[in-house]
Every structure is written in C-alpha cells, then in structure tokens.
Amino acid sequence: MVSKMILETVEKLRSGDLDVDEYVEKTYEKLYRIENKIKAFITIRDKEEVKREVKEKIKLNGRLSGILIAVKDNISTKGIRTTCASKMLEDYIPPYDATVIEKLKKEGAVILGKTNMDEFAMGSTTETSYFGSTRNPWDLERTPGGSSGGSGAALAAGIVDIALGSDTGGSIRAPAAFNGVFGLKPSYGTVSRFGLVAYANSLEQIGPMAKNAEDLSILYSIISGDDPRDATTISLAPEKIENAELKRVKMGVLKDIVDASDKAVVSVFNNALNKLSSEGVEIEETKLGYTEYVLPAYYIIAMAEASSNLARFDGVRYGYSKYGEGSWRETFAKNRGEGFGIEVKRRILLGSFILSAGYYEEFYIKALKVRRLIKESLDNLLTKYDVIVSPTMPILPPKIGEVIDDPIKMYAMDLNTVIANLAGIPALSQPAGLYNNLPVGLQLMGKYLSDYYLMALSSKIEKVLNLYDLTANIS
Amino acid sequence: MKIEVNDQLVSKLQNLALIELSPNEKERIKKDISNILDFFDKLNELDLSSIEPLFHPISTGKLRKDEIQQPLSLDDALKNVKRKENGYIIGPATYGE
Fold first, then answer.
1. Rounded distance, CA A374 to CA A344, Å?
2. What would the pLDDT profile of A238-285 be if each residue is shown by its tens digit?
3. Residue A417 pLDDT greater than 80, yes or no
4. A176 touches A183 (CB < 8 A)
5. How far apart are the first and last CA of chain B?
6. Across-strand partners of A286?
C-alpha cells in the first residue's frame, strides 16, 4: 500500500536482490535512450566511476546507500562542474561540497549528474539555460517548468527516484507540477544554503523532489538541519510527523488564486478537492488578498537581492574571464556582459535600479511592506486552517517559446508559488490529476515548520487520488 | 510615478551593474525595463505608510563559534583562477582610470 521506492531499492541493493551493475547499467541505458530527447542534464558522471562509488556506498549503513540522485546545477559539488546553466560558470569546478551534498554523501547517496535549470535559477521554464531548454517528458513540445526543470524531467522520465532542486519563487514546485512529481519548498532556515549559488537569499531554499510523499520526506529529513556555515539556518527542527488523518482536516482554498488560473487547471484541481471532500476533509473557500501586488513585490525583492548577490561574478577569481587587460571596470563589465544571458542581465540591471538612490524607498521598501501584508494574511489564514491549497501553477505547461520572449507573461506564471517564499512558510506540490495527459499540480501550504505535517498529509492525499510514482511515456 | 527609460538611464544602469550591453541588447532591455517598471508601479495604489517593511522571513540571526577551522588549501582555493602567479591572483588594473 505504502510506496517507499528508495528504501526498497536500498534494501535490495544491500541484500543483493538488486545487482549493483544491473542497477547502474539500467539507469544509464535509460539515460542514453531518453536524454537526447529531454536534455535534463548539464553534466552526467562517468558510468564506471559511478558504479565504483555505488559499490563502495552499499557497504555503508546509510539511509540512502547506493541510491542515485540528480542534483540541480546551482548546488556545489566538489570536483563536479557546477555551472548554474550559465556561460559565466561553464567550466567552474567547486573545490567543496554544499552542506546538503555532504549530508547526502554521509547517508550513501551517489550523484548521477547535475541537472539543467534556468540560468542562475532566473526563469520558470528552464529555457533561459545557456545549455538549451529541457523538454517536458509528458509532451516534448512543452517546457518542464523551472527553474529546477532538469530535476523534474529526470524524475518524470524515470531516470532517478530522487532529486534536489532549489526554490526562490516556485522553482521546485513549478517543475514538480508540470512533471507530475512531488516537490517541497521547505520552511525558510530549515535547509542550509551553504554551497547553493545565491540568487535571492531571503527567499530561497534547497528542497527535495521525488515521485511520492514518503521519499520526499526521507530526502528532506536528510538534507535539513542547523548549519554553522549558514547563519540563517535555525536550531529548531520541524516536528517529525509520520502520520496525518484526512478526516476533519480544515483546508482553505485560495479563491482569488484559483480564479486567476486557467479553466483546465481549475477543473482538475476541483476534481481532486471533491475526492478529498468525500474522505472527510473540510474544505472552505477563503481569500489571500493583495493578489495584484504579489508579483510586483516579489520581483522587486528578488531582483534587488540578485543584483547584490551576482556582483561577485567578475571573472577574476573564477568564471568567464575572456578579458583581463584594461581597467577593472572595463574588465568586469565586459566579462559580465558576455558571461550572463539576457534574463540575468535584465534582473541585475533592474535590481541595481531598484536599490539606487531615489528609488530605494519608491520600490524596494514598498515591496517589503507588501511582503509583510502577505505574510500577515497567510499567518492569519493558517490560524483558521490546517492547510491552504491552490493549484500549484495557474496554467498547463507552456509550449517551448510560448512565454520566454515576454518577461511579464513569464513572471505571471509564479503568482501561486511566490507567496510561500515571501512568507518563509513550507509549500508542497503533488500531482492533482492529468488534463489531456498533462500533469496539474496541487499546492499545499502550511504553518512555518509544519513541513513533516504537509508531507504526511500529502502521503494520504496521493493514496486517495491514486497519483504517485508516475512516469511519463516518452515516445 | 512614470519613469522615462531612455538611453541615459540604461547607460547609468550599465555602470552601476558593471555590465556591458551590445547595441541590440540595449534596445531590447530598454523596452523590457520600461514594461517591468510599469508592472512594478502597481504598488503605488496601496497606502503603505503605516506598514513596517519585512526584510527577511525569520528574525533570528546567529553567529558561529570563533574557532579555528580547516580552510581550503591555497591550491584548491585558486583552482578556478585563470590568471595566477606564485599563489596570487592577477587582477585587472585598479589605477590610472
């Protein structure tokens, strides 16, 4: 009844029921067959090296001993190229591991490769990648969402069972929704950002992606925790909840968010809610408020933080450095002009504007005030409801090229997801159903530090909807 | 507040952000910035005078213990440097501008 894909695989590898060579060979076979169609990875590790590592790791008594994992390419991996899908870092090899990678290695996980993403995580479709777009395994003409699109596609294609993403305004949940998999944007401060290439510090978290709620929870329990190297991690751990009952759960539906979503999405979403209602979930419509102000506030904050964070890329200590002669201003400006793609440049330039004298109060401070209003509204709703729900994305996965040339159109995709980042609360996306064989996501948001509760609830919901361990049929 | 996005503003932003744009990019970005600022202008509809800004979702910051730790070796730290000499990074000129 309960699906525990990764724990079963660990056990089979350990007992010898699953041969290591077979496990690795099958994974690579699938990868070679599918990868040229979906382009989920930027870097794939050498098969023999991976095989050797899996053999070593299954001797360890780790919770993930021998399990292959896909890692988003903005998470530092010692000795493995970490590009952030940018020309700027095309040949950058980190000399250290991110904290989450250290933790995974301790539990025996083995990195299969680094996944494609929007450049520096700036995008919602994985189309801003310097290495080209990833394609959605459910429909190769469509995007997998973003920015963690490669991780989402690798899961949906059945290449891996677990993956890491990062979420600044929906970058885990969008690809989870569009690929029919599970993703958690954790409570802010519960997962270390040490080794995550920073985009917008006050908004982002690394988080788990998987094919069912149980695997999601196992992965989260491994990567989360206080870290002296990240001053924003908290010492208070979320309470571990393994079981949640659906009966009498109070679920608030964000009507104003639902109303802004496409009909196709809403029909699948409502269908899922009807099934939950017949299991005793108490569903009530409510409102977030401020929905027209959410996206401007979010993008002002994200761009301001981005302009400051990305100031470090000058090509001197690492990164694109075609130019080295001339004054430092010229050198930096040329390296940055050629090393960054258009969306990254747009956000840095706007961020510089927002933080410049005369406009700081006009834009940045106002956005931070709206942020407080949104957080207060969510906190208030979460005193009335156990969980707040909405569709994860307002639209079905867009076709490649459909939104990429119009920034405002692309930003509009993030309405449902950015609110959790502004408030720091946990948010999870799981499959709600399919519309013409395209996955639609259900988003659950909960109180700060209710991460395990959300995942326990999600585990019950996946059984009711009978939607977990989905793999796309790639033609 | 309607902000006019002209060549002068784009040049100022290039200087602030230290990003050189090609002529084509300049035109494209000028248009985008103008559209995005209109989109941001929405916030001016709200009276926010009595609201405190929220810079960060959590209020607790902390310091790590001041203990000696093993840093990266010099070799490791300089591995991604393109121009280096005797354990030093060669940077661009910072004088004579």
1. 26
2. 889 888 999 999 999 999 999 999 999 999 999 999 999 999 999 999
3. yes
4. yes
5. 36
6. A254
Cα–Cα distance measured from residue A332 to residue A336, given in angstroms and rounded to the nearest whole number: 6
Give the tens place of pLDDT for each residue, A293-331: 999 999 999 999 999 999 999 999 999 998 878 899 999
**Strands across the sheet with A438-445, in order?**
A41-44, A110-115, A68-72, A162-167, A205-210, A182-185, A427-435, A438-445, A387-391, A250-254, A282-286
Q: Could you tell me if A387 and A248 are in contact, meaning their C-beta atoms sit under 8 angstroms apart? A: no
- pTM given for the model: 0.97
Distance from CA of B81 to the nearest CA of A (A): 5
pLDDT tens readout for residues B8-24: 999 999 999 999 999 99
Catalytic residue numbers of A?
72, 147, 171
| pLDDT band for position B61 (cuts 50, 70, 90) | confident
The 3 state secondary structure assigned to chain B is: CCCCCCHHHHHHHHHHHCCCCCHHHHHHHHHHHHHHHHHHHHHHHCCCCCCCCCCCCCCCCCCCCCCCCCCCCHHHHCCCCCCEECCEECCCECCCC
pLDDT score at B93: 84
Chain A residues in contact with B21 (beta carbon < 8 A): 337, 345
The whole-angstrom separation of Cα A137 and Cα A124 is 17
**Residue A400 identity (one-letter amino acid):** I
Do residues B35 and A371 touch, judged by C-beta distance below 8 A? no
What separation in angstroms does the CA of A273 have from each of A50, A280, A445, A467, B82? 43, 11, 15, 14, 56
Q: What is the DSSP letter of A184?
A: E
Give the nearest chain A residue to B11 (CA atoms).
A349
Residue A374: HSE in the Cβ half-sphere, 13 Å Cα cutoff: 32
- Residue A234 has its nearest CB partner, among B22, B52, B60, at B60
Q: Is B29 on the interface with A (CB under 8 A)?
A: yes
A328 within 8 A of B94, measured Cβ to Cβ: yes
Pairing of strands A110-115, A282-286: unpaired
Torsion of CA A39, A131, A169, A428, to 10 degrees: 20
Confidence of residue B59 (pLDDT cuts 50, 70, 90): confident
Tokens of A465: 């909807």
Closest by CA to A27, choosing from A65, A3, A54, A58, is A54
Nearest to A327 among B20, B32, B92 (CB): B92
Say what the ipTM of the complex is. Answer: 0.95
Residue A361 has pLDDT above 80, yes or no: yes
Q: How far lies A367's CA from each of A78, A146, A374, A425, A429, in Å?
A: 37, 24, 11, 18, 26
pLDDT at A1 over 50: no
The tokens of A40 are what? Answer: 């989920």
Chain centre distance of CA A54: 26
- 3-state helix, strand and coil shares in percent for chain A, rounded to the nearest 5: 45, 15, 40
